[in-house]
Specification:
heterodimer, A: alpha+beta, B: mainly alpha, 11 helices, disordered N terminus, disordered C terminus, membrane (chain A), transmembrane helix (chain A), CU044_5270-like (chain A)
């Protein structure tokens, strides 16, 4: 019977012209996505994730028409809360967050017809000792054109590697580590927060939300800002396990936190994606977090304005307590 | 008729996809290896004129999602067939129109059949309209499975990974599709191989 089906369909003629057209489309897409230092660093991270046993996604079920349910997003956050609760508090001499950050340089560069955006990439670290002493580490990966059109304009502009009057360079720099005076490394909606304050936060979702609303209220709190402050407790602050669990539970009840389904971050790590919109000084921005539901860790945070361009991409490499000592960050594996 | 251009995954396909994370130009190796086969499959199902968009979208989708490709789940070839099949679903009407045309006129007359198959083709000629109508009458998901077997020569296991469905579901969809085709063609037709019918 299959033979009858094959005969019905016959053998279409090969189409070399079509192959050339599609090949050109693919090349254009590949050039558009060219961001060398960043992509090499990310590839290094992806390789590290494989070594660490992080599960990469399988063949994705193509179901763009099925919107993930509100209820499934809520239950994912509640399940993450249970995982977060069983985490260990202060399990090490230092708390550390290490991430790969790409940010669009705030000014357009170039001249005349050849104007373009650049994006800066770096490894950024924050360290805190148990006594509350704080360090900031950084290693520049070098700036690259932000997108394909930017890259073309940058080439027409003569492919400059630095720009007079701007602290920007295309070359990678050495890692640095600096002590942060005053021991205040953390902030919530622009207000500084000490380790002691974070440890004293409420551990029930209703109480925590009220407390967070109060902290952010002077900045004219909208619900997106509350969602942002709560999600910051999940990864960018040394929150105790019960505070992280309460933050997950409080987020589950916020209607403006939308579940997007399973997504991969730029390094290919897959998790549950949640998004919310918040008002920042520059206007409305959208923030999307990808959360590893198995470990309750945040994998990445992407911030963009009106969805046109990724203004800031953060990939979390490590977050939590460690017995390693603060050192200047190295470039990730895979970076030249 | 040659049914399969690539009997199995090319050695190192998965590494090429991984490598393309760093140097995206390397994805062209995958493109060169599978363009012909994927184009053939899409052109068969949607007709040569409508194939272009879907073939282009298949490779662009694969390129964009290459970070999500998991070599332990499927070969690159199977992964591409899965993407193409999902995209073909959005062109339901074009597929039905193509089937009606195939039923009336047969495949593109520019392409001659292989000499040794000419006689079989002649005797199958009269069945063409009924087969096309039967295929058009199948549920989309049953047709997908049947055609991934008949046109792409994928195994049950490969179809399960390509479409992201359980292994057992492949078998049940395939036997339902074959049952419906047999019913339309009539059990007594000597062209139907009873052993093959029981295989699904």
């Amino acid at each position: 019977m299959d033979e009858l089906v094959r005969e019905l369909y016959g053998e279409p003629a090969p189409d070399p012209a079509l192959k050339t057209r599609v090949g050109a489309l693919l090349e254009a897409e590949a050039r558009r996505r060219l961001r060398r230092p960043w992509s090499m660093a990310v590839a290094g991270l992806a390789a590290a994730a494989v070594v660490a046993g992080v599960v990469l996604a399988g063949v994705a079920a193509e179901s763009p028409d099925e919107a993930p349910g509100v209820e499934s997003g809520r239950s994912i956050l509640l399940a993450a809360a249970i995982t977060a609760e069983s985490g260990t508090a202060d399990a090490g001499a230092y708390w550390r967050v290490r991430k790969l950050v790409r940010e669009r340089y705030p000014e357009m560069l170039g001249s005349g017809q050849n104007r373009y955006w650049m994006a800066e990439s770096r490894v950024a670290e924050q360290w805190m000792s148990r006594s509350g002493k704080v360090w900031a580490g950084s290693a520049e990966l070098g700036a690259t054109p932000a997108g394909r059109a930017d890259e073309e304009a940058w080439r027409r502009d003569g492919s400059p590697v630095r720009w007079p009057g701007h602290r920007l360079s295309t070359s990678a720099g050495k890692g640095t580590l600096e002590a942060v005076p005053g021991g205040v490394a953390f902030s919530m909606a622009g207000k500084s927060m000490t380790f002691a304050r974070i440890r004293a936060l409420a551990t029930d979702p209703v109480g925590l939300r009220a407390e967070v609303e109060e902290i952010v209220s002077s900045t004219g709190a909208d619900d997106g800002l509350v969602a942002d402050a709560l999600s910051g407790l999940l990864w960018s602050k040394p929150s105790p396990p019960d505070v992280r669990a309460a933050a997950y539970r409080a987020l589950a009840e916020l209607p403006e936190v939308r579940y997007l389904g399973q997504r991969a971050d730029e390094s290919g790590r897959v998790g549950a994606a949640f998004t919310f919109t918040l008002r920042e000084p520059i206007g409305l921005v959208r923030r999307t977090l990808i959360i590893d539901t198995g470990s309750s860790q945040v994998l990445s945070s992407v911030t963009d304005a009106a969805g046109v361009r990724d203004d800031q991409v953060e990939l979390v490499l490590e977050a939590g307590w460690t017995n390693e000592k603060p050192t200047a960050p190295d470039l990730p594996p895979g970076t030249p | 008729m040659t049914t399969v251009s690539w009997a199995g995954p090319l050695a190192g396909d998965a590494e090429v996809v991984r490598g393309s994370l760093v140097e995206s130009e390397r994805f062209s190796v995958i493109f060169d290896a599978y363009f012909g086969e994927i184009h053939r499959y899409v052109a068969q199902r949607l007709g040569a004129d409508s194939a272009e968009d879907v073939v282009a979208e298949t490779f662009l989708t694969a390129f964009r999602k290459r970070t999500r490709y998991d070599p332990s789940r499927a070969s690159v070839r199977v992964w591409l067939y899965g993407i193409a099949t999902n995209l073909i679903r959005r062109h339901h009407r074009t597929e039905l129109r193509t089937l009606r045309a195939l039923g009336r006129h047969g495949p593109d007359p520019d392409v001659p059949g292989h000499e040794d198959e000419v006689s079989a083709q002649v005797s199958a000629q009269s069945l063409r309209p009924s087969i096309a109508a039967a295929l058009a009458g199948l549920h989309q998901r049953d047709r997908d499975v049947l055609l991934l077997v008949a046109l792409a020569d994928l195994s049950h296991e490969e179809i399960a990974s390509a479409l992201g469905i359980p292994y057992g579901t492949v078998g049940s969809r395939l036997s339902r599709a074959r049952r419906k085709l047999r019913a339309v063609l009539g059990e007594s037709n000597p062209m139907l191989d009873p052993e093959e019918a029981g295989r699904g």
